[in-house]
Amino acid sequence: GAGVSQSPSNKVTEKGKDVELRCDPISGHTALYWYRQSLGQGLEFLIYFQGNSAPDKSGLPSDRFSAERTGGSVSTLTIQRTQQEDSAVYLCASRARQGLSNEQFFGPGTRLTVL
Amino acid sequence: LAKTTQPISMDSYEGQEVNITCSHNNIATNDYITWYQQFPSQGPRFIIQGYKTKVTNEVASLFIPADRKSSTLSLPRVSLSDTAVYYCLVGDIDSLEYGNKLVFGAGTILRVKS
Q1: Would residue B17 count as lying in a domain?
Q2: Comparing C-alpha atoms, which of A2, A11, A1, A31 is closest to residue A90?
Q3: B103 is a domain residue
């Protein structure tokens, strides 16, 4: 079946603009995660959804970052008033129900460049 | 969450067995050890997961000693296409309320040469 998809694959924006990044998880996966990866760095956890609720938002770097998930499926990560330090690859992952495994299935990512 | 330590990089040649060791001295009782692989411009991909002793699948083997303070990912007969970053993660897969917040360190860059 289809894997995790993300759009757009690349986004170039100007400092101060808002951006929306979209994630379509694997159908039936209840958990959804957002990470970001800066150049040459490891992955940084941002936020986690179980269904439509986000029990763990601890990784969001500032109040300019927000995310939502609707219908237990698609998720959108929004960055307001983008800054150059927001430039990174934003990765989304989904996972089947709790307890089977902590295997997360990652999408290809959205490369965000803030000029 | 248990902190992990891995070598920054390793070099190998095609056909050799590669062993990447990860230290996780403060691993908790409920924590599992998971390894992911990441190719350039792609998201990470799950390789293998284990709790103790040895786990083997079609891709790799995972060796975990009795004290569980370290683990070794073994890749048999590597090829050029195994060049990637390998991440060792430790986490509680049964954490119900908050899910499993995987913590990725810097990983180990494996370079396979011909």
Answers
A1: yes
A2: A11
A3: yes
Neighbours of B82 (CB within 10 A): 19
Each residue's pLDDT tens digit, A12-31: 999 999 999 999 999 988 88
**Residue B43 is nearest to which of A41, A48, A91, comparing CB atoms?**
A91
CB distance A99–B93 less than 8 Å? yes
| Backbone phi, psi, residue A86, to 5° | -80, -10
A-chain residues near B34 (CB < 8 A): 102-103
pLDDT (tens digit per residue) in B17-65 = 999 999 999 998 988 899 999 998 899 999 999 999 999 999 999 999 9
3-state SS, residue A53: strand
Residue A84 tokens, joined: 């150059």
CATH of the domain at B78: 2.60.40.10
Domains of chain A as residue ranges with CATH: 22-96 (2.60.40.10)
Mean of pLDDT over chain A = 90
The CA-based diameter of chain A, rounded to the nearest angstrom, is 42
